[in-house]
Amino acid sequence: MKMLVLGGTVFLGRAVARQARDAGHDVVCAARGESGEPVEGVAFVRVDRDRPDGLDALDGTFDAVVDVGRRPSHVRHAAESLRGRAGHYTFVSSCSVYADAATPDQTVATAPVMAPAEPGFDDPSADAETYGRCKVTCEDVVTGTFGTESAFICRAGLIVGPEDPTGRFDYWVRRHARGGEILAPGAPEERVQLIDVRDLADWIIQAAERGLAGTFDAIGAPVTRQEFHAGLAEGAPSAHELTWIPQEFLVEREVAPWSGPRSLPLWLPLPEYGGFLTRDAGPSLEAGLRTRPLAETVADTRATLRDEPHRIGLTEEEEAGLLREWHAQ
Question: In the chain, what percentage of residues exceed pLDDT 70?
Answer without folding.
Answer: 100
